[in-house]
Write a structure and sequence with these properties.
Shape: globular
Oligomer: single chain
Number of strands: 19
Order of helices and strands: EEEEEEEEEEEEEEEEEEE
Amino acid sequence: MAWSAIQNKEAAKDDATFDSTPSVNSLIVVVLSTWEGSIGASDISDNQGNTYTRAVYSDNSGVNVGIFYAIATTSSGSFVVSNDGGQGDYSIGIHEFTGNATSSVLSQNASDTGQSTTPNSGNITSSDANEELFFGTQSHDGANLAQTEGSGWTEMIDFPDGSSHMPLHTQYKTSTGTDASDHTIGDWQNWVCLIASFEPLAEGTTTSTTTTSTSTTTTTSTTSTSTSTTSISTTSTSTTTTLTSTTTTSTSTTSTRPAQRQHQPRRRRPAQRQHQP
């Protein structure tokens, strides 16, 4: 199954909400950028109850950036991702991908910091013969600067501001080799640049969601037994759709015995007439 970038969304100092509900088992990648507020390993959550893991984190002169990820094992309705870290000045970016493995999905990561116009994460190398998803991001301490993706990368979020919220820039590519997340910003700034790679779904593997429902059918059967003087009706109820019965009685956990035959006095035979010669 090939990798697909489905959707992304950004928010400043607030929760981020996808425009449409992500697919179950899709890969959710979250970037959190804060100013002078460290990023904890459990700072990201969503309203679906999915568990997020911090893939990589670094800081530089007040700029803090972290990449988190989760498999959307639960996904329905409005899908909202939150920053639980309590930092005052932050930006958050959320991304949905498909084509991912559904367990042990994180492959490699790297980070670097610097002061220049060319943020670069440092190299990672794919550990899979099939194409891995390479995801890169950078943030810096400038304001309203142009941000450009690296060669061969596809830009996802360009959120430059920096005066009312932290700048954020994200990009992705697929690769079976070695690469770094490289970006260009419009002025000399302190920056943090990160990269993480994710394992693809194994060849020939499909993911599916199964919903199972159970219903019970009740069947009622009536059998009549007759004698010369009395008719008795017996009703039985079973939770299966087939009721086993005999010719004159029905199988049930509760039954009524057939009426006893009324006793009739036995008639005497008339005496044999004696033969007269």
